[in-house]
Amino acid sequence: MGTSVEVGVAAKTLEKAGDKPGFKVPVFDLSRQNAELHDEIFAALERVIGSGHFILGEEVEAFEAEIARLSRVRYAIGVGNCSDALHLVQLALGIGIGPGDEVITTPFTFFATAGGTARLGARPVFVDIDPVTFNIDPARVEAAITPRTRAIIPVHLYGLPADLPALRRVADRHGLVLIQDAAQALGARVAGVQEAGQPAAGAQVTGAPSPSTLAGPAAPDPPTRRSCAVMDTDTHRKPPSPPAQANRPTPRDLAGRSVRTPVGTAASQALGGGNDAPIAAIGDVTCYSFFPTKNLGAFGDGGMIVTDSAELAERLRMLRAHGSKPKYYHHLFGYNSRLDALHAAVLRAKLPYLPAWIERRRAIAARYRLLLADTCPVRDGLVELPAEAWPAAAPAQAPAPEAADLAGAAGAGHAYHVYHQFTIRVRRPYRDALR
pTM for the whole thing? Predict the structure, then answer.
């Protein structure tokens, strides 16, 4: 009863505050990030403008190489957006996804995840999510496989990796391609996962990249997994402070500490080092988004496809440019979906700061969890905080950890959440009262 009153009063307070002129809390404010990176961004733009090359070219190739290294794969192909990426991947696969085929995915996602499948005349098969992580349930995926199934598309919702070891095993057992929708999950990884090894028996798919060859054998389920995210412009504060910007105010975290963490420290090393695997190294092909509000955002639409398959990468490069190779020699009916050089230049300017931005999100998420853990709605089970581990390894509502623990690097067997959003679940009728 006390919780009901508490939530109700809070809702009314917010409602009244919202009526006040000028009362506005922006979900995302790119102008702050752009102001902090003003010098780097404008230098990058001037570099491209001075070159006179705006479509593909060296700037895009350099950015592709950087994303490939971050993902620990061999090839990266820049495209117009992540929606196109998901469509082009299914079009390019040697198995020829089309009418009569089925692709298993999650219903709790953006329209584009299934849209690419439907555009090819194939049938998206929706498998329910795990109620704790909001990601697709591997056990239900296996139950939904039929002779018509060609691929599995998990979504790493809000930046929390899906249960990739389990999904990898399912894909290998049934000879399916694992396509990852990582629109919100650039930089996410799973610690303690073996990337390389011999192909599993029966995992070959004729005419398509072999899941086992690309990602290695099935890996054991990690014992725990972390989850949570926050969408706040403070997460994009610039960590290092170059001499030219020495007079700018130093950003502070919620405890008043400076967050200008130089790239190369433990925070940034956690993004790509250690005994772990980026999510892209576990799937056969992965699609990223650089929509402006993503953790790494362009000045417009942008996307990237990463894979270890040379054949698939070559086909994708043709498909993004009307099926041509070289220019004006067309081998396929392709599309016009290319990452522009100006976008690539901006993204290259931002990329060095991504590790510290992600750590900033992790620290803020930990702070949220710490402050919310002792509130009546959370104690009474009316509000559930984001999951932190796979359900097989941890209780549905894990206790709030110490902030320092969450802010550190993921340990063996953990998933590294990149915190695109920090999403809570509120039970009815209190959910509507908080809107």
Answer: 0.74
